[in-house]
Amino acid sequence: MDKMEIVEKYTLLSEKIADADMVLVGVGEEFNEDFADIGRFPHLMSALEEVDIDQTLEWTVPFLEHRFLKEHKDGRLVEAYQSLYELIRDKDYFVITTCIDENIKKAAFDTERLVEPCGNHAMLQCSDKCSSALYSSEEFSDLVNQAIWDGVGLDSLEIPRCPVCGKPLAYNNILCEQNYVEDGYQKQWERYTKWLQLTLNKKLCILELGVELNLPSIIRWPFEKVAFYNQKANFFRVNASLHQMTEELRDKGVSIGMNAVDFLREYCRS
Ligand SMILES: [Zn+2]
Question: What's the 3-state SS for 56-110?
């Protein structure tokens, strides 16, 4: 896709957003954290080297990744989220994301207007799902930080365990697979479905960003359905490889064949 064509489509997008009553945003796989910047955090790198040497410390890796997510506050994903925020900040918006890294919260989005159905790293759950109880991850994250900085090393840590059955705790997200406790996002999910019901007769601008086909029933298919049934909807699909529009949406759909993170960073900076 050439530059002029993308600029034209961005202009159209900003006009449709300005004109819309409500803006629905879906954020998908292209926004998943790739940990490419971890080399900028030498204390985390030496902790990972410790894991390389001692395989019994393998269990600490997700906790070290969480430290990275907490400490890494800039970079291309955050830039993209800031551009997105500027684009929709004054609108009645709702964002649904399949990302579990919470990078989106590093921009100023209203978290009441955000739902993360795949979970995140804020809470821990029993890896065996003996109950649906959730526990804050904050305290253990602080212990990991201390172990790294005080030089006592990762082997001073003990794996956090379920107070009910004694099995290891895991982050409350989709990486728990069939044991994922879905209670964590229910309150926001209810807000989201209520908000969606209100869109039916409104001028709705739908922006699908970097959503691929790993979890199509969360964003991709429902967005197509909402766009189809809403007579006043506009639908923008931004994706490097899967940007094709369905036949039914040809009239109200706009495809932008570009990585959505780069699109926001390069074309949506005000
Ligand atoms: Zn348990």
Answer: HHHHHHHHHHHHHHHHCCCCHHHHHHHHHHHHHCCCEEEEEECCCCCHHHHCCCC
Query: What is the distance in A from the centroid of ligand 1 to the CA of 164?
Result: 5
CA angle 212, 213, 216 (to 5 degrees): 110
Could you list which residues have their CB under 5 Å from ion ligand 1? Answer: 126, 130, 162, 164-165, 167
pTM for the full predicted model: 0.95
Where helices occur in 104-259 by DSSP H, the ranges are: 138-149, 186-198, 220-229
- Say how many Å lie between the CA of residue 158 and the centre of ligand 1: 16
Cβ neighbour number for residue 155 with a 10 Å cutoff: 12
Residue 215 corresponds to which amino acid? L
pLDDT at residue 1 in the model: 75
Q: If you measure from the C-alpha of residue 130 to the centroid of ligand 1, how many angstroms do you get, rounded to a whole number?
A: 4
Cβ contacts of residue 244 below 8 Å, gap of 6+?
255
Structural contact between residues 13 and 196, judged by C-beta atoms closer than 8 angstroms: no
Residue 133 alpha carbon to ligand 1 centre in Å: 9
Mean pLDDT by 10 residues, the chain (270 residues): 92 97 98 96 94 95 97 96 97 98 97 98 98 97 92 91 98 97 97 97 97 96 96 96 92 95 90
The CA 170 to ligand 1 mean position distance, Å, reads 10
Looking at residue 149, the DSSP 8-state letter turns out to be H
> Residue 144: what residue type?
V
Residue with tokens 């821990």: 124
- pLDDT value for 270: 61
Tokens at residue 123, please? 């809470």
**CA of residue 139 to ligand 1 center, whole Å:** 18
